[in-house]
Amino acid sequence: MDLRLDRCVIEVAVRVLGRPVLRGRFRADRATIDAGTLIADVSAKSLRTNVPLLNRVLTGSRWLWAARHRTLSYTATVVPDGPRHLDLLGTVRVRHTRYPLPLRARVVHSDDDTMVFSAQGVVVRQRFPRRLSVEVAAELGA
């Protein structure tokens, strides 16, 4: 199954006391699920935030360095957990560093041709921001 690019949202948030103070949205370039493995590539330049002019700072050389590292990659093993839940046990590669990013997914709809799911997880880093909340909503189809 391949990702339907027009039906995918990837949001990242920095939260303080449970409230998002900074939100960003990425666009996926491609994703596939094959034999229990999910592989997704996300364009680093596609980042859009809720703070004006911050996009250029976050995609610049001190953060994502999108001019040099154009893609963020996510690879996960898909483990079914009941009829409507999936555990995505994976890592995200940003620049040259890999971070564990387990996602808990809920299958909203599935049939022979499509699967719609929403997933949540947290990336824990060694430096600021220490925790990034990640939310994904996507549709995969044949």
Looking at this protein, list some descriptive labels.
1 helix, eight-stranded antiparallel barrel, Lipocalin, 142 residues, single chain, globular, 69% strand, 9 strands, mainly beta
Protein described:
The protein is mainly beta and 142 residues long. The chain has one domain (2-141): Lipocalin (Beta Barrel), CATH 2.40.128. The protein is built from one helix and nine strands, in the order βββαββββββ. The protein has one helix spanning 54-58; strands at residues 2-16, 19-34, 37-49, 71-80, 85-94, 97-100, 103-110, 114-124, 131-141. Strands 1-2-3-4-5-7-8-9 form an eight-stranded antiparallel beta barrel. A hairpin with a 6-residue loop joins β8 (114-124) and β9 (131-141). The N and C termini lie close together (5 Å).
Query: Proportion of β residues?
Result: over 45%
Largest sheet: 8 strands, antiparallel, barrel
What class do helices, strands and sheet pairing give? Answer: mainly beta
Top CATH class: Mainly Beta
Distance between the termini: 5 Å
- N-to-C SSE string, H for helix and E for strand: EEEHEEEEEE
CATH homologous superfamily grouping: Lipid/polyisoprenoid-binding, YceI-like
Q: Rg, please?
A: 15 Å
- Tally of individual helices: 1
Q: Do you know the CATH topology?
A: Lipocalin
Query: Percentage of helical residues?
Result: under 10%
- Spans with pLDDT under 50 lasting ≥5 residues? none
Instruction: Count every beta strand, where a strand is a DSSP E run of 2 or more residues.
Output: 9
The CATH architecture comes to Beta Barrel
What is the total domain count? 1
User: What general form does the structure show?
Assistant: globular
State mean pLDDT (0 to 100 scale): 82
